[in-house]
Amino acid sequence: MTRKKNTxxxxxxxxxxxxxxxxxxxxxxxEAKRLAEGGAAHGAFIWAKRQTKGRGRYARExxxxxGNLFVSILLSPDKPMEExxxxxxxxxxxxxxxVAPLLPEPELLTCKWPNDLLLNGRKLGGILLESxxxxxxxGPRRWVVIGLGMNITGCPxxxxxxxxxxxxxxxxxxxxxxxxxxxxHHFIDGYGIWQEKGFAPIRRSWLGHCEGIGKEVxxxxxxxxxxxxxxxLDSKGHLKLKLPDGKTRKIAAGDLYLL
Length: 259
Ligand code: BTN
Hints:
The protein has five helices and twelve strands. It is α+β, with helices and mostly antiparallel strands. Biotin binds next to helix 2, strand 3, strand 6 and strand 7.
């Protein structure tokens, strides 16, 4: 996404940004939480070369072999709770933008609701958003950790949802570090847009890259599977599903399968 520079806001985010790098942690999301509890500040990017307990959505394992990208961002956004999941969409766009110019066929990159990055229909990256509170002298403070895992040099086989890596796409010389520096730049830019203009420009841009609009899908929720046509994304980031009876159902979170 391109934006006109608002130097005030861009500077503010750049001022807050700081990078902490590790050879190995259990999970960069867990480390971000520990850092917040120990007094760390908004704007920390936590990068690890390896994770021993990387995790995905719904407590799934995120296999974290060295060479791939594992990064979490610690944020203390001044936004209502219901808007926080929108950060996943701007993160997915930042991940897409950070690798698109490196690919021979960038149009093969797509965003899958709610927070996956696909390459030729296979999962290249995933995003895990978690929030929690710390108690400070001034009262409770809400934190958000947004974790991104991206397959650069390899990916596990035999997953329920097939995975891909940049190497599979013929991108051999790119390291996690290069993708990280590009991602930081695009994330700071996207986060600034969200703060300044809200979700509308993020939503527009995300829809321009989205997988599955107008197609038959299954949305898997913890208690039920829902079938319908993926109609659109609403102004909050909820999936709008056209049901067989003609009604529309809005879904805040779930697993999407293209049929
Ligand atoms: C998913 O697709 O289920 C989300 C995967 C998120 C993985 C990343 S890797 C960096 C950060 N640390 C974690 O333990 N998980 C996220």
